[in-house]
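Complex record, two chains
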Amino acid sequence: MNDLAETTSAPIVSARGLRKQFGGREILHGLDFDIPAGRIYGLVGHNGAGKTTTLNAILGLTSYEGTVRVLGEDPYAKRAQLMENVAFISDVASLPRFLRVRELFALLTNIHPNFDQQKARGFLEGTDVRMDARIKNLSKGMIAQLHLAVVMAINARLLVLDEPTLGLDITYRKRFYRRLLEDYMTEERTLLITTHQVDEIEFMLSDIMFIRDGELVLHMQMETVSGKYAQVLVRPADVEAARAHKPIYEETRFGQTAMVFDGVDRDTLAAFGEVSTPTLSDLFVALMQREPK
Amino acid sequence: MSQFNDTQPIFLQISERIAEMILSKTAKEGEALPSVRQISADLQVNPLTVTRAYQSLVDLGVVESRRGMGMYVQPGARARLLAHERQRFLTEEWPRIAKRLAALELDPAELLANANKVTDQGSTDE
């Protein structure tokens, strides 16, 4: 029953009081979180909320205040060492465009101790990416496949994906995530993803973090979301009565009022209309529009 | 893009699909079931969710996890599953249906007579 064993080891990523200032303006206001092994984390927030800065701190790409530990090490001080076990794809990181795929693999074999060229070639089988192709001549979708093949062949324990499917069509996006689930994910490995297309990966995630204006406004396991939040399509006659239970969000469409509640008993809510669990994008809208305290 | 309904936890919906495979004999007793990884990739759901779905069937004695080999349908699984599903129907669904029939003033005997006609015409499997 190996598959079912709970991982109780130290967290893969741990942050305490993570702060970051740019030019005197604080953009991360002290984040605290632990990311255990074997989980798929979604980090969601508006542009400018601090997602990429948080990822950069984890990857050792930026200095910060507070404490961050990745695989037990300080990522800013031990960046080179950590990169043996941490890989990332970001919408701005790029592969050297003038190289051919074959040359890229040769280069990686030389500079990265954990890069497995055979594995990378295997991942490209069944794609249209040829070993002789120049990277600059590949389509955006093919570059994403190549990038994924490279990072999966590094055998990293932590894989960080910052908007990995930006600009890809739906077929490529699905293929991308399928690859990850089929060939990368195991209980020792951890995935941290940011995306705006949150509905597409909702069921892939084990945990979700919402970041708003440099603060974590939500951090919970996906399976506990339904115990805390409920969405109700409230019948017109019951709108006032439902409001008495203090919905955290309310929206009227086509004369139908949808309300999101936090911590209100579902049996109570059932009196006002149909109760369901909000999707991540519904929850995102609800939590992001709340006035900051 | 939802292949799931939003009224039930995903793991339950997956375990019901696996149970469906066993009831319909798509997966026969003693045979291997799709791996956690395969279902996870096919449905694009978290592997822990699939593991949880399988665990609920292991707890029912319907599925067996063989170390390093994967998931197998237990001998006698179909009978156990049928008994379980029948029990669930009688305790959970039937009272709701009975209430609804009463509310609509429908005569169960008449409905059954019609239902038998339908299944007689369309029956293929026991």
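Note: Chain A has a mean pLDDT of 90.
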